[in-house]
Write a structure and sequence with these properties.
Blueprint (H helix, E strand, L loop, with lengths): L1 E10 L2 E6 L4 E6 L6 H13 L8 H4 L6 E10 L2 E10 L4 E6 L2 E2 L11 E4 L11 H15 L1 H23 L4 H44 L6 E6 L11 H14 L1 H7 L10 E6 L2 E2 H4 L2 H21 L5 E5 L7 H8 L7 E6 L7 H6 L3 E7 L2 E5 L6 E2 L2
Parallel strand pairs: 3-13, 3-14, 8-12, 12-13
Antiparallel strand pairs: 1-2, 1-4, 4-5, 5-6, 6-7, 9-10, 10-11, 14-15, 15-16
The protein binds adenosine-5'-diphosphate and magnesium ion.
Adenosine-5'-diphosphate binds next to helix 1.
């Protein structure tokens, strides 16, 4: 997929921006705080109909403006779609239109093959399990809207159950009955979450371990493994088996949950492990190795789309300034699989030359305080208002 004809109005530090993009690579260069991330994140918002990661809608509106509006063309499997996203601050109202028609079901979520790579991703292995669960949930819901649906229903039940367990306002009898009903739902949605997580982790692991082998000439191996709360490696493939293991575990912990006052059992306690040469990378690998593991994982996400015959859009926001020379080279190797690459950098340096040489179709833009100017080789530069 690729995006083009991007129009931003009152979005972050862009009062107005009208930008043509092509397949191939587009590089956005600008000092810190000029609007590179804002621009790249607007593409995410356009394609998924929701703000990038933890951003809040109201913060995306330009200063005191009453709304923001985004428009763009998304080219997906030989078809082009005109997508519009608008948000009204006062009414907290969001409207998404596809080809001029209001789209309530968020049709595009789950259909856009996009891999986003930002510096904080490089620290994923060092962070806590919650960050890794967020990573799993975000990346999988992007591919499978059904997963997103299970997840939000699951979270709602866990929330209700935790609140009741903590408050203990109800009689023990009533609470126990309620918990039985909630647990049935937790097992239902939770097992589907487990099964889907196991499915994607195993695909990513397959590609990532191959990639990691290439990066280190097979001297080092990586395994990305699903550290599920059931402690099953591998998790059974059959849903009914997962459900029965889960049901058994949750029943066994009923009394303990009651006395401790919160839910102890379920995929909200899962983790994702990275093992390098069989050892937990979080504890034993060098910082550089941990970062290579993430590069291998990002590449795996791109390869997953390729395997499905989808050509992804790859967005790298200021990754290179965080990486040393050898790891930059590792990243370059990923590029060949994408249909469009949007890359932001703070400085144009020599190491970037091979990128431009490798891509017949490349464009270069300067980002300066909410204004983007296309730099053309013939000197006929164009500001994109
Ligand atoms: N809602 C907003 N309205 C106006 N300016 C904003 C808004 N949100 C962020 N900004 C400005 O955007 C700039 C940061 O842009 P960012 O895209 O993160 O820069 P970078 O080029 O470093 O990636 C800051 O100057 C910030 O003040
Ligand atoms: Mg930035």
């Amino acid at each position: 997929m690729y995006v083009s004809n991007i129009y931003l109005n009152n979005y972050r530090n862009y009062k107005k921006l009208d930008l043509q993009l092509s397949p191939g690579i587009s590089v956005f260069q600008g000092a810190n705080g000029q609007g590179k991330s804002n621009f790249l994140e607007s593409i995410y918002n356009l394609c998924f109909g929701r703000p990038f990661r933890n951003l809040k809608e109201s913060d995306l509106v330009y200063r005191d403006a009453p709304y923001y509006y985004l428009r763009g063309s998304i080219y997906l499997q030989q078809r082009s779609y005109k997508v519009e996203v608008g948000y009204e601050k006062k009414k907290k109202r969001k409207i998404i239109k596809i080809d001029g028609r209001i789209d309530r079901s968020n049709t595009f979520s789950g259909r856009c093959p996009i891999v986003f790579f930002v510096p904080e991703d490089l620290e994923l292995i060092r962070r806590g399990p919650e960050e890794r669960r967020k990573f799993l949930d975000r990346e999988i819901s992007q591919i499978s809207p059904l997963y997103g649906d299970y997840l939000s229903r699951y979270k709602r039940v866990i929330y209700q159950k935790n609140r009741a367990l903590k408050q203990k306002r109800l009689s023990k009898e009533t609470l126990k009955n309620l918990i039985k009903a909630w647990n049935a739902q937790i097992v239902y949605f939770g097992s589907r979450i487990l099964q889907t997580r196991a499915h994607f982790i195993s695909i990513w692991n397959k590609f990532a371990s191959h990639n990691f082998g290439l990066l280190f000439e097979n001297e080092h191996q990586i395994e990305i493994s699903y550290n599920n709360f059931l402690r099953k490696k591998p998790l059974p493939e059959k849903l009914s088996e997962i459900e029965s293991l889960f049901g058994f575990e949750i029943t066994a912990k009923e009394d303990e949950e009651y006395s401790r006052g919160f839910s102890l059992v379920g995929p909200h306690r899962d983790d994702l492990s990275f093992l390098i040469d069989g050892y937990d990378a979080k504890r034993f690998a060098s910082h550089g190795q941990q970062r290579s593991a993430i590069i291998a994982l990002k590449a795996a996400q791109i390869q997953y789309y390729h395997q499905k015959n989808e050509k992804p859009l790859f967005i790298l926001d200021d990754i290179f300034s965080e990486l040393d020379e050898s790891r930059r080279q590792q990243c370059f190797a990923l590029f060949s699989n994408a249909e469009q690459i949007l890359l932001s950098i703070t400085k144009k340096e020599k190491y970037l030359d091979p990128i431009f040489d490798n891509f017949s179709c490349s464009s270069f833009f300067h980002v300066n305080n909410g204004i983007i100017t296309e730099i053309r080789e013939n000197g006929d530069n164009r500001t994109c208002y």
